[in-house]
Design brief:
The chain has 323 residues and is an alpha+beta fold. It contains ten helices and 13 strands. The chain binds two DNA strands through strand 5 and helix 7.
Length: 323
DNA sequence: GCGACAG
DNA sequence: ATCTTGTCGC
C-alpha cells in the first residue's frame, strides 16, 4: 500500500529572508544574491528582493542594508522610490556612498549569515522524491478530471478546484480554499509555494486525475509542482504549463515532442492560432495518456478545467477583497 | 554582450 | 502571479 509522502510544505521562507537581513550589522551591507546564497540558491535573489521590498518592519529589519551585487544602493521602497532615503540611512550608519555606490564595498560587505541552507535542502528533497514518481497509468475507471489554480492578493493565496466529468465535460464539483502564502515565487520551487494551498482541495477521489497549472517532470530536477502534488498526496496528476521552464521542443506542431537530456519528457500542444500548452507527467500516469487527456480538453485553447479554475479563483480573490 | 527560468 | 490605459481584433 502506497502511503502519502511527507515533504517540507510549511517552510516560511519570507520569514527566513527577513531574519537573514536582520543579521547585517550597522555599518555594513550585503547583497540580494548573498542572502539567496546563504539560503541555498543564488537563483532566489530576485525573490529576496521582492520580499525585502515588502518589508513589514522597516528599521527592525534593516532592508536598507541590502544592495546590488555591484555595490549600487538601488531603491528603498520597492516601487522605484526612496533612493536618496536609502543612501542617507547608510551614510548615517557610517558608510560612504559615491555616485550611488557603496565605497570600500568589499570591506563593508557582510556575508557571515547564520541560516539554514533551506533551498539546498528543498532541492535535495526534490531529487529524492523524484524517484517516487510513477510514470505509468495507475488508476481504474478514469471518469473525472479536476483542474487547480491559484490567484494572489497581497499575502493571501486563493485556490480553486473544478472537477469535470470526462465524458461530457460537465462540472460536478467546485471548491475554494484560501490562506496566507509564506513562500515567494522562485522558479523550480513552485510546489513549496502552492502545495500548502492545493492540498486542502485534493481528497484523492477514485477515478479522478488532477490537472496542475505548472510543470511535472519537465523540470530541472524532474520534479515540478505536478509531481510534488502527485507524490505527496498520492494521486494521479498531470502538469500543464503555459510556458517552458526547461527542455527542447521538436518543431512547433499540434503535438510536438519535448526532450530533456535526450529523453522524451513532455509534449507541446499547440492548437491552431492559440497559445501553447506544455504537458508532462505529474504522477501515476503515462505521458501518452496525460497528453491525450489534455488534448481532449483544449476546447477553448487551454485545458478547460484549468481555464475555469483560473476564472473562479480570480473571482474568489476579488470577492474576498470586497469588490 | 550573454543569458534570462513554471506561477 | 500582479501592476494597469488605451488599443487591436474577432
Amino acid at each position: 500500500m502506497c502511503a502519502l509522502v511527507a515533504c517540507n510544505d510549511d517552510v516560511d521562507l519570507n520569514r527566513m529572508i527577513l531574519e537573514a537581513a536582520t543579521q547585517i550589522p550597522d555599518g555594513m551591507v550585503s547583497t540580494y544574491g548573498d542572502i539567496a546564497k546563504a539560503l541555498g540558491d543564488v537563483r532566489a535573489s530576485r525573490a529576496v528582493g521582492t520580499v525585502l521590498a515588502k518589508n513589514p518592519r522597516p528599521f527592525v529589519v534593516p532592508c536598507h542594508r541590502v544592495v546590488y551585487g555591484d555595490g549600487r544602493t538601488g531603491w528603498y521602497d520597492g516601487q522605484g522610490n526612496g533612493a536618496d532615503r536609502k543612501m542617507d540611512l547608510l551614510r548615517s550608519e557610517g558608510l560612504k556612498i559615491v555616485d550611488g555606490r557603496v565605497e570600500d564595498f568589499d570591506r563593508v560587505r557582510f556575508n557571515a549569515f547564520e541560516t539554514p541552507s533551506i533551498l539546498k535542502d528543498l532541492a535535495e528533497e526534490q531529487e529524492r522524491l523524484r524517484a517516487l514518481v510513477v510514470e505509468k497509468d495507475d488508476f481504474s475507471n478514469l471518469e473525472f478530471v479536476a483542474g487547480l489554480d491559484v490567484a494572489y492578493d497581497g499575502v493571501i493565496g486563493y485556490a480553486n478546484i473544478i472537477k469535470m466529468r470526462l465524458r461530457d465535460l460537465k462540472v460536478v464539483e467546485e471548491l475554494d480554499f484560501s490562506a496566507e502564502v509564506k513562500f515567494p515565487y522562485i522558479p523550480s520551487y513552485l510546489g513549496y509555494r502552492e502545495l500548502p494551498l492545493l492540498r486542502h482541495l485534493i481528497h484523492g477521489d477514485e477515478g479522478t486525475v488532477y490537472l496542475i497549472d505548472g510543470q511535472g517532470r519537465l523540470h530541472p530536477r524532474g520534479f515540478g509542482i505536478a509531481c510534488q502534488v502527485g507524490v505527496c498526496l498520492n494521486v494521479p496528476t498531470i502538469g500543464a504549463a503555459k510556458s517552458l521552464l526547461i527542455g527542447d521542443v521538436e518543431g512547433d506542431g499540434h503535438r510536438a515532442p519535448i526532450h530533456l537530456s535526450g529523453q522524451l519528457i513532455g509534449y507541446q500542444l499547440h492548437p491552431e492560432g492559440r497559445t501553447r500548452t506544455y504537458v508532462s507527467v505529474g504522477n501515476r500516469i503515462s505521458l501518452e495518456t496525460a497528453t491525450s487527456i489534455c488534448d481532449g480538453l483544449m476546447i477553448n485553447g487551454v485545458p478547460e478545467p484549468l481555464r475555469l479554475a483560473h476564472i473562479r479563483c480570480e473571482e474568489f480573490a476579488k470577492k474576498a477583497r470586497g469588490g
